[in-house]
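Q: Structure tokens for this one, please.
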Amino acid sequence: MAKADIIKIEALAGEVARDLLLSLYDVDVAREGPRTILRVYVEREGGVLLSDISAFSRRFGAVLEVEDPVEGPYVLEVSSPGVTRRLRRPEHFEGALGKRVRVNLEAPREGRRHLIGVLSACDGAGIEVREGDTAYRVPYAEIRKANLDVTQEELFGKGKKTR
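A: Here is the predicted structure, written as tokens:
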């Protein structure tokens, strides 16, 4: 899919999200066999509800039918970015400052392809991940994939103490 088509889809999705008091987090377009999968991630302060996802899906689906920016058959999937959300854009990294992240690198750095630590800085050129006392500066071009890294303890709290 052409970059211009993706930009148009993002603009259309952003308008629908704003109308529903949601924020557009990301759009991902992938080919799976003969059809295109259009994944749209929306969020809201305090968390997105299933009713928000449903309303966005209905309204954005109608917009796609009129505007027709996707060539051929496609499937629309709408969800929240989730607690282990993917970080792809500088604004995603800005929103994750001070949080634990997992970064997969394009090429090994100091013999390592993965960094897990606290995102301590980001700017237009890249990010800084702090693992203990060591800080790793990584340009965006060297990031294969990055996600928030949430531990089970953070999700579910500490388990029951046994006697």
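A few notes: The radius of gyration is 18 Å. The chain has two domains: 3-79, 90-153.
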